[in-house]
Design goal:
Length: 349
């Protein structure tokens, strides 16, 4: 869907593309074009955080408003996830490709974000992704909120991306899948959780939440030195990843979660969103896998307005000491299946 800008009813356009330009030796990003547009929600185009200075370092970054997550080729969400995780491997899967993203201590990935608002083009040639929050509630389109750290924001038309080329039809959305949006319903979403010591996850481990939220953040260290004055040096990750997972259940009839909290029982979990077929046995798909999960809240069910027991299950994912049965890895990872053969991490793929 297109947006209406705050000025003269003009259509707002946003785009994002990864690149390999070095943060500390250049301020140049890349031209946005075909397949680089972002589809953003109706509340408005991305905006700089309140109080930000032009070089985006006063409070650490630029906030991007929510926009729909699409399981689709070459689109922004895949690129954002790749830059956050920092490591990506690609393997053929039927007529599609699996992009397996694993957490790296520090992500070297860089991107160019640009958007129009009030007939002004905001162009951020160099940025890092330091946080993503995926949220999917029953009956609603899944959304992705991104937090990024940028080197500078150009609003005077001096960047590669200007109001003219952002609004002349050059920056376009990628080819859409038959089902464009991820939703939490039994046709698309499967959530499974079991003890880490149990057998591989299967049909008997399925739970049925009404809301899924996955929040992942890096603690970027933003430093001023003589290297890039008046801009910040390339931000480095100063902390390890601990994904926060929230599952909400409108009707709950077990005390097992409280028992697991008291006993500090280690779990394993996967969250899978499956879209339409690509061919050769492959489907558009997002698959988060967590080999080590602990339920972190008190998790006590509460009475809702309908006098039903409801539960919000808050979990933290960690690196597993050893790979559990059914998962041949110890780090949390995300596999996105789409039709792109190149990595999303570089070259805007």
């Amino acid at each position: 869907m297109s947006l209406t800008s705050y000025a003269l009813g003009a259509s707002a356009v946003a785009g994002f593309k990864t690149h390999t330009n070095d943060w500390n030796t250049t301020n140049t990003g890349v031209d946005l074009g075909a397949n680089d547009a972002l589809e953003i929600l109706m509340q408005g185009a991305p905006r700089s955080a309140v109080g930000m200075s032009e070089n985006l370092s006063a409070t650490g970054g630029v906030g991007i408003r929510k926009y729909p997550v699409k399981a689709t080729e070459n689109s922004g969400p895949q690129r954002l996830w790749a830059l956050l995780y920092g490591t990506e491997a690609v393997a053929a899967n039927g007529s599609g490709y699996d992009h397996t993203m694993t957490w790296a201590t520090n992500s070297t990935g860089t991107g160019n974000l640009a958007w129009t608002d009030n007939l002004v083009c905001h162009d951020i040639p160099m940025l890092k992704v330091n946080g993503l929050t995926f949220e999917s509630a029953e009956g609603q389109i899944a959304t992705l909120t991104a937090n990024v750290v940028g080197k500078q924001e150009l609003i005077d038309g001096s960047g590669l991306n200007t109001l003219a080329n952002m609004t002349d039809g050059t920056v376009t959305l990628p080819t859409q899948a038959a089902i464009r949006y991820l939703q939490t319903n039994d046709a698309q979403c499967v959530v499974r959780i079991a003890d880490a010591s149990a057998a591989a996850l299967g049909a008997g481990n399925v739970v049925n939440p009404s809301l899924v939220r996955i929040a992942m953040n890096r603690q970027m260290q933003n430093r001023f030195t003589t290297l890039n004055t008046p801009y910040i040096d390339e931000p480095l990750a100063g902390n390890w990843l601990e994904p926060a997972i929230t599952l909400e259940f409108p009707l709950w009839d077990t005390t097992q979660d409280w028992t697991d909290i008291v006993a500090a029982t280690e779990k394993k979990m996967d969250i899978i969103y499956t879209g339409t077929t690509i061919g050769g046995g492959a489907n558009w798909e997002y698959k988060w896998e967590f080999p080590s999960v602990f339920i972190s809240s008190d998790g006590l069910p509460e009475l809702s307005n309908e006098d039903l027991l409801t539960l919000t299950m808050n979990c933290m994912a960690h690196t597993a000491a050893t790979a559990p049965t059914g998962m041949a890895f110890t780090l949390p990872r995300l596999t996105i299946t789409d039709t792109t053969s190149a990595t999303h991490f570089t070259s805007g793929a």
